[in-house]
Amino acid sequence: MKKIFIIAVILLISPFYTSASLDHNVSGWAWSENIGWISLNCTNFSCENSNYGVNINEDGTFSGYGWSENVGWIDFAPAGPYPGLPDYSARLDDVFVSGWIRALSYGGGWDGWIKTNGTNYGISVNPSSGDISGYAWSDFLIGWVSTSGTGYGAQTSFSFNSPPEGVDVVDMSVE
Fold first, then answer.
1. Taken in order 81, 85, 87, 91, is the CA torsion positive or negative?
2. Which of the four, 25, 30, 135, 151, has the lowest number of CB atoms within 10 Å?
3. What is the C-alpha to C-alpha distance for residues 175 and 173, in angstroms, rounded to an integer?
Protein backbone atom coordinates (compact mmCIF):
# COMPACT_ATOMS: atom_id res chain seq x y z
CA MET A 1 0.00 0.00 0.00
CA LYS A 2 2.86 2.39 0.85
CA LYS A 3 4.49 1.86 -2.57
CA ILE A 4 1.19 2.52 -4.35
CA PHE A 5 0.80 5.75 -2.39
CA ILE A 6 4.36 6.86 -3.24
CA ILE A 7 3.87 6.10 -6.94
CA ALA A 8 0.56 8.00 -6.91
CA VAL A 9 2.24 11.03 -5.32
CA ILE A 10 5.05 10.93 -7.89
CA LEU A 11 2.56 10.83 -10.74
CA LEU A 12 0.54 13.70 -9.28
CA ILE A 13 3.42 16.09 -8.52
CA SER A 14 5.89 15.19 -11.27
CA PRO A 15 4.49 17.67 -13.82
CA PHE A 16 5.33 20.49 -11.36
CA TYR A 17 8.91 19.42 -10.71
CA THR A 18 10.05 17.86 -13.96
CA SER A 19 11.19 20.19 -16.65
CA ALA A 20 14.16 17.93 -17.32
CA SER A 21 14.67 16.12 -20.57
CA LEU A 22 16.19 12.79 -21.35
CA ASP A 23 19.44 14.46 -22.36
CA HIS A 24 20.52 15.66 -18.92
CA ASN A 25 24.25 15.26 -18.58
CA VAL A 26 24.39 13.81 -15.03
CA SER A 27 23.36 10.21 -14.46
CA GLY A 28 23.78 7.38 -12.00
CA TRP A 29 23.28 7.15 -8.26
CA ALA A 30 24.40 8.67 -4.98
CA TRP A 31 24.05 6.90 -1.62
CA SER A 32 23.23 7.99 1.93
CA GLU A 33 23.15 5.49 4.81
CA ASN A 34 20.27 7.47 6.30
CA ILE A 35 17.99 7.86 3.25
CA GLY A 36 19.24 5.25 0.79
CA TRP A 37 19.62 5.74 -2.96
CA ILE A 38 19.38 9.08 -4.74
CA SER A 39 18.65 8.76 -8.45
CA LEU A 40 20.21 11.54 -10.54
CA ASN A 41 18.32 10.84 -13.76
CA CYS A 42 15.03 9.19 -14.69
CA THR A 43 16.88 6.76 -16.96
CA ASN A 44 17.66 4.86 -13.74
CA PHE A 45 13.96 3.88 -13.67
CA SER A 46 11.65 5.01 -16.43
CA CYS A 47 11.22 8.47 -17.90
CA GLU A 48 7.68 7.76 -19.11
CA ASN A 49 5.89 9.14 -16.04
CA SER A 50 8.50 11.48 -14.61
CA ASN A 51 11.11 12.99 -16.91
CA TYR A 52 13.62 14.30 -14.36
CA GLY A 53 17.37 14.67 -14.15
CA VAL A 54 20.32 16.77 -13.07
CA ASN A 55 22.28 18.90 -15.50
CA ILE A 56 25.54 20.84 -15.40
CA ASN A 57 24.97 23.90 -17.57
CA GLU A 58 27.59 25.57 -19.78
CA ASP A 59 28.29 28.19 -17.10
CA GLY A 60 28.93 25.45 -14.50
CA THR A 61 25.68 25.94 -12.58
CA PHE A 62 23.58 22.88 -11.78
CA SER A 63 19.89 22.57 -12.59
CA GLY A 64 17.21 19.92 -12.32
CA TYR A 65 16.15 17.37 -9.75
CA GLY A 66 17.24 14.08 -8.24
CA TRP A 67 14.86 11.61 -6.58
CA SER A 68 15.03 9.69 -3.31
CA GLU A 69 12.30 7.22 -2.43
CA ASN A 70 12.70 8.26 1.22
CA VAL A 71 12.84 12.09 1.02
CA GLY A 72 11.41 12.83 -2.43
CA TRP A 73 12.67 15.48 -4.84
CA ILE A 74 16.12 17.01 -4.40
CA ASP A 75 16.58 20.41 -6.11
CA PHE A 76 20.07 21.05 -7.49
CA ALA A 77 19.36 24.78 -8.08
CA PRO A 78 17.40 25.89 -5.00
CA ALA A 79 16.73 29.56 -4.35
CA GLY A 80 18.26 31.21 -1.30
CA PRO A 81 18.67 32.48 1.26
CA TYR A 82 21.25 29.81 1.93
CA PRO A 83 22.13 28.60 5.44
CA GLY A 84 25.78 29.63 5.17
CA LEU A 85 28.66 30.20 2.82
CA PRO A 86 28.93 29.79 -0.06
CA ASP A 87 25.91 31.90 -0.86
CA TYR A 88 24.72 30.06 -3.99
CA SER A 89 23.27 26.81 -5.28
CA ALA A 90 25.44 23.98 -6.65
CA ARG A 91 27.94 24.82 -9.36
CA LEU A 92 31.08 23.38 -10.89
CA ASP A 93 34.22 25.50 -10.36
CA ASP A 94 37.04 23.96 -12.39
CA VAL A 95 36.62 20.31 -11.29
CA PHE A 96 35.13 20.94 -7.83
CA VAL A 97 31.45 21.24 -6.94
CA SER A 98 30.52 23.93 -4.45
CA GLY A 99 27.26 25.39 -3.16
CA TRP A 100 23.98 23.95 -1.90
CA ILE A 101 21.28 21.50 -2.96
CA ARG A 102 18.01 20.98 -1.10
CA ALA A 103 15.57 18.16 -0.43
CA LEU A 104 12.11 19.63 -0.99
CA SER A 105 10.30 17.56 1.65
CA TYR A 106 11.93 19.48 4.49
CA GLY A 107 10.02 20.24 7.65
CA GLY A 108 9.68 19.03 11.22
CA GLY A 109 12.84 20.83 12.32
CA TRP A 110 14.81 19.91 9.20
CA ASP A 111 15.56 22.57 6.59
CA GLY A 112 16.52 20.19 3.75
CA TRP A 113 19.89 21.80 2.96
CA ILE A 114 22.77 19.65 1.70
CA LYS A 115 26.23 21.23 1.34
CA THR A 116 28.37 19.98 -1.54
CA ASN A 117 31.74 20.89 0.00
CA GLY A 118 33.37 21.77 3.31
CA THR A 119 36.68 21.79 5.14
CA ASN A 120 37.26 18.02 4.98
CA TYR A 121 34.87 16.87 2.26
CA GLY A 122 33.61 17.73 -1.18
CA ILE A 123 32.56 16.51 -4.60
CA SER A 124 34.76 16.63 -7.70
CA VAL A 125 34.48 15.63 -11.35
CA ASN A 126 37.20 13.86 -13.30
CA PRO A 127 37.31 15.84 -16.59
CA SER A 128 38.71 12.86 -18.54
CA SER A 129 36.23 10.18 -17.48
CA GLY A 130 33.27 12.26 -16.25
CA ASP A 131 33.22 10.26 -13.00
CA ILE A 132 31.85 12.20 -10.04
CA SER A 133 33.36 11.35 -6.66
CA GLY A 134 33.35 12.55 -3.08
CA TYR A 135 30.83 13.46 -0.41
CA ALA A 136 28.17 16.05 0.43
CA TRP A 137 26.80 16.66 3.95
CA SER A 138 23.48 17.46 5.60
CA ASP A 139 23.39 18.22 9.34
CA PHE A 140 20.12 16.55 10.11
CA LEU A 141 18.26 13.77 8.33
CA ILE A 142 20.45 12.84 5.36
CA GLY A 143 23.99 12.89 6.81
CA TRP A 144 26.75 11.92 4.38
CA VAL A 145 25.94 11.54 0.67
CA SER A 146 28.47 9.56 -1.37
CA THR A 147 28.63 9.98 -5.13
CA SER A 148 30.66 6.84 -5.82
CA GLY A 149 31.30 3.45 -4.29
CA THR A 150 31.40 -0.26 -5.03
CA GLY A 151 28.79 -1.01 -7.67
CA TYR A 152 27.41 2.52 -8.04
CA GLY A 153 28.40 6.02 -8.95
CA ALA A 154 27.49 9.27 -10.61
CA GLN A 155 28.81 10.38 -13.98
CA THR A 156 28.52 13.36 -16.26
CA SER A 157 28.91 13.87 -19.97
CA PHE A 158 29.52 17.59 -19.35
CA SER A 159 32.05 18.88 -21.85
CA PHE A 160 34.96 20.54 -20.09
CA ASN A 161 36.50 23.44 -21.97
CA SER A 162 39.59 21.88 -23.46
CA PRO A 163 41.53 22.44 -26.66
CA PRO A 164 40.60 20.23 -29.59
CA GLU A 165 42.79 17.22 -30.23
CA GLY A 166 44.46 16.39 -33.52
CA VAL A 167 43.93 19.75 -35.23
CA ASP A 168 46.24 20.33 -38.18
CA VAL A 169 47.66 23.86 -38.32
CA VAL A 170 48.00 25.22 -41.82
CA ASP A 171 50.61 27.92 -42.43
CA MET A 172 48.84 30.66 -44.36
CA SER A 173 51.69 33.19 -44.25
CA VAL A 174 52.71 34.95 -47.44
CA GLU A 175 56.37 35.03 -48.32
1. negative
2. 151
3. 6
